[in-house]
Amino acid sequence: MADETRVAVIGYGLAGSAFHAPFVDAVDGLRVTAVVTGDPERAATARDRHPDVVVHPSVDELWRHADDVDLVVVASPNRFHVEQATAALEVGLHVVVDKPVAATARGVRALGELAKQTGKVLTAFQNRRWDGDFLTVRKLVEDGTLGQVGRFESRFERGAKAVRSAWRASPDPADMANILYDLGTHLADQAIVLFGRPVTVYAETRAPRPEVRVAEDATILLTHEGGVRSYLRASNVTMPVTPRFAVAGGTAGYRCWGLDPQEAASRAGTPPTAEGFGVYGEDRWGTLTTPDGETVVPTVDGDYLAFYRGVRDCVRGDGPPPVAVAESIALTETIEAAIRSAASGKPVAL
Based on the domain organization, do 110 and 48 belong to the same domain? Predict the structure, then answer.
C-alpha cells in the first residue's frame, strides 16, 4: 500500500515482541516489515507472527536496507537507545524510542535537534499515559471533579522476582538499570503530564538484594510549580499493599487499586484488538470520596493503541507526536535530579 508506513523493530525481547510489534500491526496504516535480532528463537517467532517480515541479525544490516523501511522502533537494551536512534535519524528514518530515551537531558536534546535537522519524527514510548486508571485520574483532574489537587500519590510496586536480563542488574550507569529509569520514568511522566515539570525533586533509593547491584526501590517526591506534591513509589522488591493512585483535592479525593490489565494481557500474547482488551472489571473501578460519601467511578478503558495511532498520524503530517521531545527533556531532567538527590540525600531544584 502506498500510504502504509513500513516499520522495523530493533530488539525482539519482551518489549519488542509484546509491547511494540503487536500494536504496530494492529494500527491501520502501520506494518512490521523488519525485525532486528541475533537470537534464532526470537527470529523464528518474528517470522511466524509477521508474514513476509525480514529479520536482520544486526542493526548494521538494517541500515544497509534503510530504503525498505520508513520508521524504526528502538526496543533494545537501554544503553543502545541513543546510538540506534541517532543512526536511524541519520539514514532518514522516523524513530520511536522506548523509554528511557537517554540517560541525560542533553542526550535527548541532541536527538531532538537531529530530528529537527532531518525533518523526521522522534517520539518516546510512554505507553503508561494510556493506562485506563491514569486516563480516569487525568479526566477527574482536568474536569475539576477533584477541585484544587494538593497531593498526588502514584505507585508501581512489584514483589521480588529473578532478574530476567543481566543488564537489568548492572551497576554501570550506561545501562540505565536503576529503577528510576524504569518504573520511575513512568511514574514521573504521569505526574508531569498532570501537573507540569517539578520545581524541586527529592528521592531515596535502595538496593536490598546483594545479587542486584543497582537500585530496585525508590521513593520520589516532586513539588510542582502550582504547589501540588507528587508522592511516587517504584519498587521491584515490595508487594503492592496500597492504592495504585490516591489523589486528594480540597473537596474530593479518588483512589483505585491494581495495575492496568493491558500489560498482563500483552505479556500473555493477547492481541490488542481482542474483545475486552484494556477493559477494567467493575470490581476494579475506583472510588470518589466527597463530604457526601463515596461513589464508584467507572474506569476508562486503557488504550495503548492510541500511542501508535498517534505515531501514524504524525508521520503522515496529520497530528503532533504522541510524546513531544520537550516532554521527554523535562522528564529526563526530573530523573537526573532524582538520581542526584538520592546520592546527596538532599532535594534538587530544577
Answer: yes
